[in-house]
């Protein structure tokens, strides 16, 4: 059995609890604070819900990613902005409007312990927001200090379980230590399809964090934990 020399974490529902995710709240934020006065609210929401929703729905077919930045720039061209804010600032505020989040109570203690064990930690997350936005998000929780590097699917136009996204972090791990084998990289995530099967198919050792203790999902009996504290029994 391979020993863990590197840990890669998923973000949402692994380290951070996404209490509420409501994409429409982000659109309403744009309408109220960003778009030019006189923008027709119903027309704007209809356009977003038809044209852009269709594009987002297609992501699952090929595990591609569509950055929210592209949607925002389209809105800027179509409706105009009444503020002179940076695209990054607007996206960050949209992310906060869409997501109500909190840290799991075992997140920081786990990351601290991994640091004392001198085990490198990376973050690989499916997300419609790019790294420049998400770095601010994880910095809000003071998590950035624990990661060697962070990767978000919006920067690469591909998402888990696609092998190309796992290759991004694997390449950087190899640069830092060429002797590390894929199976010595433990990937911890809550999505059985995206995280567990994606990591396994790439060659990483998957660890399924099943916080809600759902039965019948882990049919292949991969490593499974109910809290991050249990991770240390495996590594």
Number of helices: 9
Q: Average the pLDDT over all residues and give the rounded result.
A: 95
Major sheet attributes: 6 strands, parallel
Give the termini distance in whole angstroms.
Answer: 10 Å
The strand line-up of the biggest sheet is: 5-4-1-6-7-8
CATH topology of the largest domain: Rossmann fold
Note the beta-strand portion: 15-25%
Taken in chain order, the helices and strands follow as: EEHHHHHEHEHEHEHEE
Helix vs. strand class: alpha/beta
The oligomeric state of the chains shown is single chain
Architecture of the largest domain in CATH? 3-Layer(aba) Sandwich
| The CATH top-level class label of the largest domain | Alpha Beta
Notes on the protein architecture:
It is a single chain. The protein is an alpha/beta fold and about 240 residues long. The chain folds into 2 domains: about 5-20 and about 100-235, HAD superfamily/HAD-like (Rossmann fold, 3-Layer(aba) Sandwich), CATH 3.40.50.1000; about 20-100. Helix content is about 45%, strand content about 15%. The chain has helices spanning about 25-35, 40-55, 60, 70-80, 85-100, 105-115, 130-140, 165-175, 190-200, and strands spanning about 5-10, 15-20, 100-105, 120-125, 150, 185-190, 205-210, 225. Helix 5 packs across helix 7 (about 130-140).
